[in-house]
Specification:
- The structure holds 2 protein chains of 2 kinds.
- Chain A has 3 helices and 2 strands, in the order αααββ.
- By secondary structure, chain A is mainly α.
- The N and C termini of chain A lie far apart (89 Å).
- Chain B is mostly beta strands.
- In chain B, the strands form 3 sheets. In chain B, strands 1-9-6 form a 3-stranded mixed beta sheet, with no helix packed on it. Chain B has a 3-stranded antiparallel beta sheet with strand order 2-5-4, with no helix packed on it. Chain B has a 3-stranded antiparallel beta sheet with strand order 3-7-8, with no helix packed on it.
- In chain B, a hairpin with an 8-residue loop joins strand 7 and strand 8.
- Classes of the chains: A mainly alpha, B mainly beta.
- At the A-B interface, strand 1 and strand 2 of A face strand 1, strand 2, strand 5, strand 7 and strand 8 of B.
- Strand 1 of chain A pairs antiparallel with strand 2 of chain B, so a sheet runs across the interface.
């Protein structure tokens, strides 16, 4: 489903490019003709807009291609499976000893109690000193 | 409610700081003391903020509050303690004078 949506979007981008590129070519040709300065300015403004749109579409397509490639690489890596790594027993024993040492070291620590209550004891009133 | 007259004060108000299990707990920095109404009570805290002297000023009702930072690290977790109400009444200001005339005697 997700890949269908991506494919639809990709088609939409490509159709937009197919529409924009001839417009850009035509405007670039026309700008070289003898034109009033006012019309040339308008055509240049439109040309800049279309080129910006083209650049953004190309950027989106490139990003999509990169995402597709990364997803393929992830799948090639075996995702989402995360199998255990088999190692020799003596290495596993060594690792267990290391972990046990760490747990033993941790036993020597305790969290500092966090204050939550402030209690005020007024005591007994006394006569003020002279 | 604690009652006190304007002639009196609490000269050793003590702060107790505990965790959720009632064990003594530290705070970051010096606890800050205040009076809810300084026209009724004033508070003078000790240097370490763990005790204070609370003086009566004038009749009325006020409370003592203490706030502190419970987070011993870089953050701030503010906790506040509030005393019971302190009711201050007038002290031993002379309001009645009694004249003892003694026994009458014959004029000389």
């Amino acid at each position: 489903m997700a890949s269908d949506l991506i494919s639809e979007r990709r088609d939409e981008w490509q159709e937009a490019l197919d529409d924009i590129v001839p417009q850009i070519r035509g405007l670039e040709d026309k700008i070289n003709d003898a034109l009033s300065e006012e019309l040339r300015a308008v055509l240049n403004e439109r040309l800049a807009f279309l080129k910006a749109r083209e650049a953004l579409i190309l950027s989106a397509i490139a990003a999509q291609d990169a995402a597709d490639a990364a997803e393929d690489a992830l799948e090639d890596h075996g995702f989402p499976a995360l199998p255990d790594m088999e190692i020799d027993q003596y290495l596993l024993d060594e690792l267990d000893r290391e972990v046990a040492d760490n747990l033993a070291a941790r036993d020597g620590f305790a969290a500092t109690p966090m204050a939550v209550n402030l209690t005020i004891n007024l005591g007994t009133p006394v006569t003020k000193p002279e | 409610m604690a009652d006190i007259t304007t002639d009196q004060r609490f000269d050793n108000v003590v702060l107790s700081i505990t965790d959720s299990r009632g064990r003594p707990a530290p705070v970051d920095g010096v606890p800050v003391w205040a009076s809810s109404d300084e026209t009724v009570l004033t508070v003078t805290a000790s240097v370490d903020g763990m005790s204070a002297v609370v003086d009566s000023v004038a009749p009325g009702t006020a409370r003592v509050t203490v706030s502190a930072d419970a987070d011993m690290g870089a953050g701030v977790v503010s906790i506040t303690g509030v005393s019971e109400d302190v009711n201050v009444t007038n002290g031993s200001v002379a309001s009645v004078m009694t004249l003892n005339l003694g026994a009458p005697v014959d004029k000389p």
